[in-house]
Write a structure and sequence with these properties.
By secondary structure, the chain is α+β, with helices and mostly antiparallel strands. A three-stranded antiparallel beta sheet has the order 1-2-5. It has a two-stranded antiparallel ribbon with strand order 3-4. Helix 1 packs antiparallel against helix 2 and helix 2 packs across helix 4. The longest helix is centred in the N-terminal third of the chain and has 26 residues. It is elongated.
């Protein structure tokens, strides 16, 4: 039986259970985020290319910023979730269950380049399939984990005594 539960003990000796997200939900979240960025770039292209070379330069700048900082901004300022992750009830946290910060988010997202190698995220997929917590190389280096969020807040509160052990 596949166990997808990761337990973390806080300094206060409280055990917190995290549920790492696997390849399929993470891939679907990536697909949603990529589609949103692509749609935004196509809208920008319609406007900016009308400005000639200056517009082309602005478009390239917008592409760079969206590609590299879209996930970082959403992960740090959006409670660990880009739009795609939020749609699938996922979030990025540190391996101890605390919120992800700027350094960890930048690290994991800059290493997407390595995860992408040699093509179509092969290294990232292989590392996710080998790691028991489904972490890609960027997650391993940054000390982050993509987890499932609770679907029902009332149910989560009702189940809290079952999920936290002192």
């Amino acid at each position: 039986m596949l166990d997808t539960l990761s337990s973390v003990t806080t300094p206060e000796l409280i055990e917190v259970e995290l549920h790492p997200a696997g390849l399929l939900p993470r891939s679907l979240a990536w697909l949603i985020d990529t589609s949103l960025r692509f749609a935004l770039l196509m809208l920008l292209a319609q406007v900016l290319f009308a400005l000639g070379d200056f517009g082309s330069g602005l478009f390239l700048l917008a592409y760079f910023l969206l590609e590299w900082f879209y996930p970082v901004l959403f992960e740090v300022l959006g409670a660990g979730a880009s739009r795609g992750k939020r749609a699938l009830r996922l979030a990025v946290v540190l391996t101890d269950g605390t919120p992800v910060g700027w350094g960890a988010s930048l690290t994991r997202n800059l290493l997407r380049t390595v995860d992408f190698l040699p093509v179509l995220y092969v290294f990232g997929i292989v590392s996710m399939l080998v790691d028991k917590e489904f972490r890609r190389l960027g997650d391993i280096v940054a000390g982050t984990l993509v987890v499932h969020r609770s679907v029902d807040r009332k149910k989560a509160l009702a189940d809290a005594p079952l999920n936290i052990h002192v």
